[in-house]
Amino acid sequence: MSTLWQSTLGKSDDKGIEKLRNSFLDFRKKVEALVKNIETELPGLTIHDITHIDSLWEVSDQIIGERLYLNPMEAYVLGGAFLLHDAAHVSVAYEGGFEALKEKDEWKDLISLKFNNIEPEHGSAEEKKAIFEIVRQLHAHQARTLIKRSWKSEASNSYYFLISDEEIRNYYSELIGEIAESHHWSSKKVYDTFLERRVNAPAFFDNNTWEVDALKIAFILRTADAAHIDSRRAPIYSYSFLSPEGISREHWHFQNKLGRATLTNNNFLRISSGSSFTENERNSWWLAFDTAKMINTELHDAYNYLSEAGREPFEARKVLAVDTPSNFSKYVKAEGWEPEDISIHVSNLPRLISTLGGKALYGEKKHVGIRELIQNGLDAIFAARKLGYLEDNEGAININLQKIENGDWSITISDNGLGMSRYVLSDILLDFGKSLWSCDDVRYEHPKLSQTGFSSIGQFGIGFYSVFMLSNKVSVITNRYRSKTDESGTHWKLTFPNGLNERPFISQPTEDERIKRHGTKVSFTIDDESFQKLLIVKKKQKYNFIEDIFEIAPSPLDEDDESNEKYIHKGFSNLIKWIFPSCEINITLSYNGIKETILTADDWKTISDEELLSRIHNGNEAKKLYPLKYNGEVVGRLRIVEAPYYYVTERPSAVVSFKGARAGQIYGLQGICRSISNNEKAERNDALPDYPMECWKDWAYQIVKSEPLLLTTYLLRLHALIPDEDLRVWYIGHERCYLSDIKSLLREQDEIIVVNGSIDYEDDDDIKPSEFEGSLILNDNVILAPIRQSHYSQNNNITLDDIMSKFNMPEIKYYDLLEATMRDVWGEFTEDDEGYRVVGYVNGTEITRHTSIYKKMD
Asked: Where is the HD-CE domain (predicted)?
């Protein structure tokens, strides 16, 4: 029996203590029945039954030391928290059992985030995994409600509570439940919540000195629970029939080898193993080491917070020998291998981040820093809309552009989205490669968001760092839409005083810096030369090594200040429009005291074709675009390019956008098309418009009806989408025609000459090339059957042909169509392959080509 128990509830010479002890033992008996099924209902968990709960008294001895630290009433509250803290790991702890958890928002968020919003099949391994995860998430909070719940006794037809004594239950159950829940809080939240929480002795007890200090009790619970990692939690007999897997298996392995944590004379908690960890068990050893470091952190936090609060700290201050793996292995033994920390690490993290988050990933595309910051703001606004903190038509990005005294520029990008908590600002944003939207933290930061169908633009957790391609002076000021329970406010500021070369720091923004509404603003300075380069977009042509420079601004700078101001304003506006050609949220630009909306949400659907093409390609083009529609909504405005191409990158491409931002391109088209899916690559250049075939068929039909004389090359490509349409892709002599025109010719002719494809100049012709062009006259019975040209892309560039290939459309065999038409008009016919035949003349000179001769049979 533990010293803590013996010195408090174990005493037998006091009626008050006896009352508490009897109440507690009755409480314990009920919880024992409750938790006995944990290992069968949640197989894989280390032991969480009554033996674990009872062991916490003994572990507490080793943490607080051999001294009188609690009075009997505090021991009762602590014991109640021990009993409750893991009791909600069984189905009977929830109204309706585990199945009822599927109606909770937490379950819906989990299924959306980790199971692609598809409910696991009942009884499947996936469902068990989901239940395990959701119970681990909810059990602490459920413990708080469990103590107030009653159960009906079938034998007596009456109701009973976990605490039978009504006076004790009414006075202490709320506190016990809250302390039990707190074992899953952060240490800071525990401190903030219980710092002033002292509960006076109840009037129904004779002893009026038994005050309950909730802060001490809460820290005993969390440290004792963390430190109970010995073999009692992973007995061999249970392991043999539970057969835990994955990380649970490693937990069982290492805990099964450990003895009881023991307090040393110099205030260390010693953790040691009875047998060594072999090379095959090294993963378990490392998990033991990581767990010991976690316990060390808990002890360190407890010491600091209790000392700061003026409470007597625990005797155990640290875990022995967790400073290095080598030292820890003196107590938790390894055999046949050396526990040295030789894991992969980065010695120069700032350089890695600046490389992978900047030039190595994005090249010389300086505008990427602007794009990524705006995209982060768009994500925050979309999320705020999904959670109801903004209406569907609310939310905007504001860009403030200002020239400062030394000639540099200050750029601030603001949004009125969700804002960030201190935790997100310090732990998520600063964790290179971690995106809030795709990690588990989103379920706790923004409950219900995952189940709304929200999908973010950001997904790799590196985009923010592209700002350091532009500046070394960056600050982030945020105001979260509401405060978190474990944080003291909603306003935070993160400052990078020297880019990635110096540690950033968090502070409270000044009153003038604070954002009045929820949202975030990122500010940075940029030198004038770099700013001017932002106004130019460079596009390198890989095939012919030509570098085209498209100037976004209308004209170069000159000595006229007014002209310069117009240049800057229009140039920067055009840059934003070029990056976000189909933005779904308003973007405003503030410059020289004037605030102007430069992009209106979804205006790309209604502006003129000329303006849209100019926005995309930075030039003055006037070509007709045709709407691509999906479920009645315009999702693209496109046309097919009007020049033959073989190397696709020599021609302009259509922009593919995702949530308004450039995210890919399709060669062989012009215009813009939204993508349903996000990029798969961090460069954000591989998004595709994955729309059903019917959408593309309708789009192609519009074009051929509006422009029947579009170049044959492109009508042939469109024909693959609408094979049942009769298009002007045939020739009778020099005249383009429909297949129906050939049908009419067949009614008048008994013989036709067919050439496959066009007739071009050949070296064997008895004329000069200059004579051939424009002077060839074909015979009236010569028919040119169309051939669809192949196109060659480079560097895996996507073309319209690639889009169409996904539909597995059958190839149109034009010769088969022609022969079917002849059969319909002539009936039987003969085909002669007579080799070369005269097909026309150039200034009286015969032109011969390989032909097929078709003759009507009598």
From this structure: 42-300
Cα separations in angstroms, 255 against 239, 260, 271, 445, 762: 11, 10, 11, 32, 84
Residue 677 CA to residue 692 CA, distance in Å, equals 14
Place of tokens 């929830």: 94
How far apart are the C-alpha atoms of 423 and 446, rounded to whole Å?
A: 13
Going by DSSP bridges, is the β-strand pair 751-756/782-785 parallel, antiparallel, or unpaired?
parallel
Specify the 3-state DSSP secondary structure of 132: helix
What backbone torsions phi and psi does residue 231 show, to the nearest 5 degrees? -65, -15
Task: Spell out the alpha helix ranges (H) of 92-245.
Answer: 97-100, 105-114, 125-146, 166-181, 187-194, 214-227, 236-242
- What are the tens digits of pLDDT across the range 122-153? 888 888 888 888 888 889 899 899 998 888 77
Rounded distance, CA 825 to CA 709, Å?
26
CA pair distance 748, 737, nearest whole angstrom: 16
In angstroms, what is the C-alpha Rg of the chain?
38
pLDDT tens track for 324-355: 999 999 999 999 999 987 665 555 556 655 55
Locus of tokens 């935070």: 492
CA 632 vs CA 606, 635, 636: distances in Å: 15, 9, 12
CA distance 23 to 169: 10
Pairing of strands 268-270, 318-319: parallel
Diameter of the chain measured on Cα atoms: 132
SS3 791: coil
Angle at 366 between CA 364 and CA 370, to 5 degrees: 155
Torsion of CA 663, 669, 674, 675, to 10 degrees: -60
| C-beta atoms surrounding 391 within 10 Å | 9
How far lies 847's CA from each of 225, 362, 712, 736, 791, in Å?
A: 95, 55, 23, 20, 29
Coil vs helix vs strand at 778: strand
Distances (CA, A) of 558 to 159, 533, 573: 88, 16, 19
Name the β-bridge partners of 638: 626, 671
Long-range contacts of 25-34 (CB under 8 A, 24+ apart): 26/163, 26/164, 27/79, 27/80, 27/83, 27/162, 27/163, 27/164, 28/53, 28/79, 28/83, 30/160, 30/162, 31/83, 31/84, 31/87, 31/162, 34/87, 34/90, 34/92, 34/93
CB atoms within 10 A of CB 240: 8
**Given the structure tokens 């707190």, which residue do they identify?**
182
How many C-beta neighbours within 10 Å does residue 152 have?
9
Q: How far apart are CA 800 and CA 394, in angstroms?
A: 36
Stated pTM of the model: 0.77
Written as one letter, the residue type at 731 is Y
- 203-261 pLDDT, tens digit per residue, is 988 877 899 999 999 999 999 999 998 767 555 544 444 444 555 667 677 788 889 99
Residue 358, pLDDT above cutoff 60: no
What CA–CA distances, in Å, run from 351 to 365, 371, 429, 659?
A: 19, 22, 17, 31
To the nearest 5 percent, what fractions of the chain are helix, strand and coil?
40, 20, 40
Nearest CA-CA partner of 531 in 448, 446, 470, 577: 470
CATH architecture of 363-534: 2-Layer Sandwich (3.30)
Kindly list the distances between the CA atom of residue 243 and the CA atoms of 40, 43, 299, 766, 782, in Å, as whole numbers in the listed order. Answer: 11, 8, 32, 87, 80
Q: Are 656 and 797 in contact (CB under 8 A)?
A: no
Model confidence pLDDT, tens digit, residues 66-77: 889 999 999 999
- Where do we find the tokens 């392991």? 239
Transcribe 19-86 into DSSP letters: HHHHHHHHHHHHHHHHHTTHHHHSBTBPP-SHHHHHHHHHHHHHHH-SS--S-HHHHHHHHHHHHHHT
Q: Where in the chain is the domain with CATH 3.30.565.10?
A: 363-534
